[in-house]
Fold this protein.
Amino acid sequence: MQKGVTLISLVVAIVVLIILAGISIGTLTGDKGIIQQANSTKDFAQKTSFEEKIDAAIIVAQQKHKKPSLEEIIEEIEKIEDVTVNRTTGEITNSLGYTITGKLDGFLEK
């Protein structure tokens, strides 16, 4: 009788552990899991940081030159590592593939 109760409690414990493991794995890797949310937050932080660097470069250009030209602003922006500026459209892109539009609209030649 003693061995039967021990075996049943062992099986119940294993089943409970399997259920808890399934729930934990689902929480980590599901559609709205912790890992996906962390990656999404990381992407948002990287893009926001990129935008802040662009804004800071524009401010520096405005401080150096009273009314900076497009070329003077692009010169400051291109000091940021791995950034390219499309002089026609004003799109600013970094090496991670983030693209910012509209920041240079007031300076683009019409």
The beta strands are 83-85, 92-94, 99-100. The chain is about 60% helix and 5% strand.
